[in-house]
Amino acid sequence: MTFLTQVLNGLQLGSIYALVALGYTMVYGIILLLNFAHGDIIMVGAYISWIVMAQLGMSPVLAIILSVVGCTVLGVLIDKVAYAPLRNAPRLSVLITAIGVSYFLENGAQLVFGADAKVVPTYFNLPNPQIGGATFNGVAILTVVVTAISTIILTLLVQKTKFGKAMRAVSEDMGAARLMGINVNNTISFTFAVGSALAGIGAVLYSMAYTQATPTMGIMLGTKAFVAAVLGGIGSIPGAVIGGLLVGFAEVFVSAMGFSVWRDAVVFLLLIIVLIVKPTGILGRTMNEKV
Amino acid sequence: MDQELNGGQERPYVTAKASRNGGGRKTLSTKKRYIINALLFVAMLAIGEGLIDNGFISRYQTTVIEQIGIYIIMAVSLNVATGYLGQLPLGHAGFMSVGGYSCAIFIIRMMPVFDLNMRSFVTGEPMAVVLFIVGVLFGGLMAGLSGLIIGIPALRLKGDYLAIITLGFAEIIRVVMLNIDGVVGFELTGGAKGLTGIPSYTNFLNTFIVVGIVLFLIHTMMKSRHGRAILAIRDNEIAAEATGVNTTYYKTLAFVASAFFAGVGGALYAGCIGVMAPAKFGFMKSIEILVMVVLGGMGSMLGSVLSATVLTILPEALRAFADYRMVVYAVVLILVMIFRPQGLLGTYDFSMGDFLERLINGELFRGKSKQKSEEVEANA
């Protein structure tokens, strides 16, 4: 285990957190909702992959497509069913609803699939390239590349397209955006769709790396990704990526130093320290960055 | 199971506004109200104890009833932070585990010092009673202290950040309980296999005496100047600050009080269950307690008490449907939030004093809204 391998591990874990954190940050930016169910959307994505490949024996490409599409649909559906009726309700009510949705997905999955872990088959046999004597994990490289591409596409989407403009407008001032003729509900649905699609990609990358689906896998993953989003400054796309990588590196290096049992505690301690020093997170200053 | 419900009716939250009403309406003084409630409470304890002694309530049922009392404490204490202060802490199980571990470890370590054994707590030796009181207080204080440590940074942050930071803190506590033995070098919490050998220092009587005291303390706290300051912060923090309420102080006070009582609940839990394991105090436990508060109505003590009672009995009664229970919980939580965001009882609270007043004035079946409008007129 060389230092470079650990760096790549940190990048890989951090990339997954970053993808999930992007979903949190976008939804939070637009309706100020901490979407607790976001982590569980990933869990559903992993189960979809498992069903398609292990149960139905279909191709991994189909599994990836169905996972991403499934997560997207689920995210929009959750918004329509559970959050949309509460658009004007107190924030606390929506937050508790989000907890309810998360609870529902977890226990629903447990009811349907059982509490034991399901093994997600290998999607592709990726080569593990050797550079300068060190072997690099192919899945890790793929994860980092996919995350980088997703982030770039997302940034372009938000900055250059009409939908992105609408998202930025709604997140800045929902009322004013409505007066300017922006369809606020569609924009919110679109935000949920994009965030959940990223969660779907995250689910595939996560199952490639850890090859397991359990009903409760979304809790820790989601919580840490949220920590990442808050660390980076919630509402900020680059912030989510930085936060994700930070959390990933913190975890990998704490484990590498032989304190793996304290891993989770270190992540949360990091959050508490950052919030005390800079309550808006690392990049959470400029409201214009909010999406 | 009726007697537990009375426990909640003992300490109503809204009282004593009637004394302002003129017009020859008979009223009860606050003192009389407290005496009536105290007598009812003692009667409830006596009936419960009598039923248990005579074997009408089995050992298993007694344990369930004790757990009802513990969850009443947990729900009512979370209600202080959620319903009265208007924050959303998601780490209540963390405080519960701090209280539980502290009390259990304290009592286990003190037993040899005072020459007590496991039976001493059942037979009720005087020294064991003292140790129980000190242990429960110690558990509460340790939880309150951790509430202070987390509250000071957390309360600077707004709602969602507070939620996530308390969640993170509860996770840290869980990880610490799991791994602390390796750091201190001797067996303190027992790690993942849990802390065993906890004497069963709770019984129906002492559990419900503690429940009564906790409800009384929270009730009086919320009726006092401090309580009104806390409610003012909930209703509008900026306005409260503008009228001279020290918001930081009162937010911390309410948060620490909430943690303290959660620690007391945890201390009783340790004695009731007999085994402490970190896995019991995960995120799900915090959510379970939150569901009790939300369903009952945030800001309603009676609501917390009722839903804690129902949600503790239901799983026991519906063991056959255990798999579906959690899914149903979740659906109910979402539906309640969509159709009745203020919870089933809202902020309504039952007041035995008000009830008796209405009774002696023959107003029992008169419409509530009518009475309210009369009050408004009288106050105007």
Describe this structure in words.
The complex is a heterodimer of chains A (291) and B (380). Chain A is globular, with a radius of gyration of 19 Å. Chain A has a domain at 3-121 and 136-218. Helices cover 73% and strands 3% of the residues of chain A. Chain A starts with a helix and ends in a 14-residue tail after the last helix. Chain A has eleven helices and four strands, in the order ααααβββααααβααα. Chain A is mainly alpha-helical. Chain B has 380 residues and is mainly alpha-helical. Chain B has one domain: Orthogonal Bundle (ABC transporter involved in vitamin B12 uptake, BtuC), CATH 1.10.3470. Chain B is 73% helix and 0% strand. Chain B contains 16 helices and no strands. Chain B has helices at residues 2-10, 30-53, 59-84, 92-113, 118-123, 126-154, 159-184, 204-223, 225-235, 237-242, 247-273, 283-296, 301-317, 322-339, 352-360, 368-379. In chain B, helix 3 (59-84) packs parallel to helix 8. Chain B is globular and about 65 Å long. Chain B starts with a helix and ends with a helix. Classes of the chains: A mainly alpha (291), B mainly alpha (380). The A-B interface holds A 28, 32, 34, 82, 85-86, 89-97, 99-101, 103-104, 106-108, 110-111, 219, 223, 226-227, 230, 261-262, 264-265, 267-269, 271-272, 275-276, 279 and B 82, 86, 88, 153, 156-157, 159-161, 163-165, 167-169, 171-172, 175-176, 178-179, 182, 283, 287, 290, 294, 298, 323-324, 326-327, 329-331, 333-334, 337-338, 341.
- Helix-strand pattern of chain B, N to C? HHHHHHHHHHHHHHHH
Q: What percent strand of chain A?
A: under 5%
CATH class of chain B: Mainly Alpha
Principal-axes geometry of chain A comes out as globular
| Cα radius of gyration of chain B in angstroms | 21 Å
Count of distinct strands of chain B: 0
Q: How many whole angstroms does the radius of gyration of chain A measure?
A: 19 Å
Sequence of secondary-structure elements of chain A: HHHHEEEHHHHEHHH
Summarize the biggest pleated sheet of chain B.
none
Mean pLDDT of chain A: 88
The structure class of chain B reads: mainly alpha
**How many helices of chain A does DSSP assign?**
11
**Helix fraction of chain B by DSSP (H/I, runs of at least 4):** over 70%
CATH architecture verdict of chain B: Orthogonal Bundle
What would you call the quaternary organization? heterodimer
The main sheet of chain A comes to:
2 strands, antiparallel
The largest inter-chain interface, given as chain pair and residues per side, is: A-B, 42 and 39 residues
Broad shape of chain B: globular
Low-confidence stretches of chain A: 286-291
